[in-house]
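Entry for the shared binder. Reason: the reviewer on the internal report wants the predicted structure included alongside the sequence.
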Amino acid sequence: MSTAKETAAALTELGAYVMAALPNDVVSHELRAGELSIRVQRASIVKVLTFLRDDSNCQFTQLSDLCGVDYPDQDERFEIVYHLLSMRQNQRVRIKLTTDEDTPVPSASGVHLCAGWLEREVWDMYGVFFSDHPDLRRILTDYGFDGHPLRKDFPLTGYVEVRYDEGQKRVIYEPVKLTQDFRNFDFLSPWEGIQRVLPGDEKASAPPPAKPAGG
């Protein structure tokens, strides 16, 4: 069994190997918390994934996950992250790229078939478009859903609420309504606590029963 130091050395060597093989496609690589991350050019993602899958020193044949991250203060606010596994080499690697709201990312579905479903999820949650995707449509929300729920600027309550209308015999969308009639706010500091007596706490404030004489 290899030690943590040996694993770190092997991953560092792998990062340097990939960068040397694809100097125009790989931006950087780093080892953090014992995990290798390789940052690539957006347009090169298919080329990089194909190399990592087919090269005999890599053999990252399994795409474990593909997800998005939103950094709204950055010019290219979205980071797309690919998690790869090489069962032959017993190694994992993370591939990263960035994009904005308008620039599409080449689809990886031609390299890893499962990417088709994962890219649909990123499109649904973040609104990142994947070019050459065979069937890019929503996968978690309804087809008429407005917006992308995992964007940092998406409102916590959403834009619409969905319900089944018995009169129309169909699902309808309505603007979100927040009913306040049954909500009570004391606006107290959490350090002060609630000042009113809560149901069930009456006994806590009641004086203890008097002891019988001679007890």
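Summary line for the report: The CA atoms of residues 185 and 194 lie 10 Å apart.
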